[in-house]
Each structure stands twice: as C-alpha cells, then as structure tokens.
Design goal:
Layout lengths: L1 H5 L2 H17 L8 H8 L3 H14 L20 H18 L4 H11 L11 H18 L5 E12 L5 E9 L5 E7 L4 H17 L12 E5 L4 H14 L4 E5 L7 H7 L2 E2 L2 E2 L22 H21 L12 H10 L5
Helix pairs in contact: 2-3, 3-4, 4-7, 5-6, 5-7, 6-7, 8-12
Length: about 350
C-alpha cells in the first residue's frame, strides 16, 4: 500500500491499465490476442511481453514498469514490426528448443515477415524480445513439449579416479527428470539409449501424468562419438517430421542443458562439466572412494525420484495421452545401441 501511495496519479493510471491487461491476457492461457492485451495496457507487444515476464517473477508494482521515466521520443519501430518479431521469436524458440540468445535472434530475423528495408530495433532490443519469449514459453511448456538429452561428469569417482558420467533425459518445460544412465562420453549414443529406456519405463509406470498436446522439439548434446550422434539426429528428423531434433554441439556443451534446466546438482550428485572428457573426479569433501557403476546409477535414480516428487505432486495440467511421436522417438533412441 505504501508503494501505491508513493505513485503519482499518472503512474497509478498506468499501473491500473497494465495490471488489468495482464489479467485480461492471463499469461496467454486465455483466448485473448496479445495485441489486444498490449493495446489495453497502452504499450507495444514486445513491451507487454517484458512486463508480463517481470510480473511473473516479482508480482510487484516495479514489474509493471510505472516508475520508468517516459522518453519524449516516439518509438520509430511500428507495432506491426514488433508483432512480427514476437511471432517469429515464438517460432524460433519452438524450432530450436532453446539455444543461445544470439542464435535465436538470428533465427528470428530469418523467418520474420518483415518489409524489406523496414526499420528494425537494435540488437539489445532484439535480444530482449527473444529472451522474453523464451522465458515465457519455458514457464508454460507442459510435460513432453520439449525434451532434452545431456551428459555430464559427476562428483562420483570411478575406480580409476575419473568421474562417472551421467546421461539424463529431462523435460525442458517442467524440469522432470524422465530417465538416467551412467556411461562413457566416447559412446554417448549408448548412454542416451539407456536413459531413453529408463524414461520409457517411467512413462509406462505412471498413468496419472498429464502431457502437452504436441511434442515440438528435442535437443541432444553430442558426445565424443560425434559422427554417430549426427546419424542419430538425422534419423530422428527423417522419421518424425512434425518435431525438431537438434544436436547440441560446440565447446562447453556438456552439462549445459542439464544445469540450465535443473541446476548444478541432483540430490547429492554434483555436476562437473569441465571434467566430462578428462580429469579426475571432483568428489564431495575430497572423498575419492570409488562408486561402482551400479551404485552410481542407483544414486542418480534416487536423486531423480526425489527431484521429481514435488513437481509431479503439484498436479501438472494437460492431456491424459502422451503427445504423438514422443514415445516412438524415445523407443528409437533406446533401440540405437550401435549405428553403422
């Protein structure tokens, strides 16, 4: 209340308009066009998305942007351009399943329906647009819409001093860990096959899960068996044309999808990405007592179950049926123990 009293009359009017527009839009869950909601708020579509993202995080007057000084300059970017960029950013996020902000900006500009020679926002504004859309979609992506496969070194030492490498199948929207495995990064396809089969067992055993209507994308971090992983992803894209399968490549890829989605640890298991290919295990408290592969897998499964429990207990919304092609895609990965 004190913060409301500190607002000027014009700031209160703007806050009321923006709050009303947010309620009208309902975070995109209602049948209200975002352009109409943005107009009700008195802002551009891209600005409305940023306000909505901040409101979800803070739920305060600051998130409504009413304290900012209003520039005397009128934006030279038309609402039509903003709307086209937001729609293209949404498609770019779906098609890529994530990725770096720079890559999403480049993809957005390639597919946006823009007039040749038209005026575009600067790079800072473009990055804000795609980042806001990525956050919005991630926050509301139901189970099964985006699937991630990643591998990373753990804090669990092997008998040779190297770390056990975890292979994990994660739902990108909810953070549910669907499947886990332990293996070697130079035969990542085998580790992902085991994780996929673990995910299939979990899916078969849980009839009360609620799913997305559409399986849009899957990202897979390439192992050291790079050429083999390329064949895996090409095969998936050829078999399931309605979804996008992306191979995560480049330096620093190990653990990137995992840590971005669920953090740097799973229960007592700490992820150590820089030791995935080489180096000794960075054991908790320096305890280098070796874990067998069976023990490491059991620890990962216990940690995954504990991680999933509070998420699944919230009662996920969605369909009773797993989205088309997701189960089949997991079966395909699970059967791929060695491509020619």
């Amino acid at each position: 209340m004190a913060m409301w009293n500190a607002l000027t009359p014009s700031q209160r009017e703007r806050a009321a308009r923006r709050f009303g527009a947010l309620q009208l839009w309902g975070d995109g869950q209602r049948d209200v066009d975002v352009g109409k909601a943005a107009s009700a708020a008195g802002v551009s579509v891209s600005r409305f998305y940023r306000i909505a993202a901040e409101w979800r995080k803070l739920r305060s007057f600051e998130s409504l942007g009413v304290f900012a000084n209003r520039s005397n300059r009128t934006s030279t970017i038309s609402p039509e351009v903003s709307a086209s960029l937001m729609e293209a950013a949404r498609k770019a996020v779906i098609m890529s399943g994530g990725g770096s902000t720079s890559a999403l900006v480049a993809h957005t500009l390639r597919i946006a329906a823009l007039d040749p020679g038209g005026r575009l926002p600067g790079m800072t504004k473009l990055r804000e647009i795609v980042s806001a859309e990525a956050r919005r979609m991630l926050a509301y992506a139901p189970l099964g819409q985006t699937i991630l496969f990643d591998c990373v070194a753990t804090s669990l030492p092997r008998s040779d001093g190297r770390p056990h490498v975890a292979f994990v199948c994660i739902d990108g929207g909810t953070g549910v860990v669907l499947g886990v495995a332990v293996g070697k990064v130079d035969v990542a396809a085998r580790g992902y096959a085991i994780a996929a089969n673990d995910a299939l067992r979990a899916i078969d055993g849980c009839n009360d899960w609620r799913w997305a209507n559409v399986f849009t994308s899957m990202r897979i971090a390439a192992g050291e068996d790079f050429e083999r992983m390329v064949k895996v992803v090409h095969r998936l894209n050829a078999m399931f044309l309605a979804s996008h399968f992306i191979l995560e490549r480049g330096d620093g890829r190990y653990g990137r999808l995992i840590t971005k989605t669920i953090g740097s640890r799973l229960g007592r298991v700490v992820f150590t990405p820089t030791r995935t290919v080489s180096g000794e295990a960075l054991a908790t408290n320096g305890d280098m007592t070796a874990w067998t592969e069976k023990e490491a897998l059991a620890e990962l499964r216990r940690a995954a179950d504990a991680h999933n429990r509070p998420i699944l207990s919230e009662g996920l919304q969605g369909s009773e049926q797993i989205p088309d092609h997701l189960y089949e895609a997991l079966v395909t990965i699970g059967a791929d123990t060695g491509l020619p």
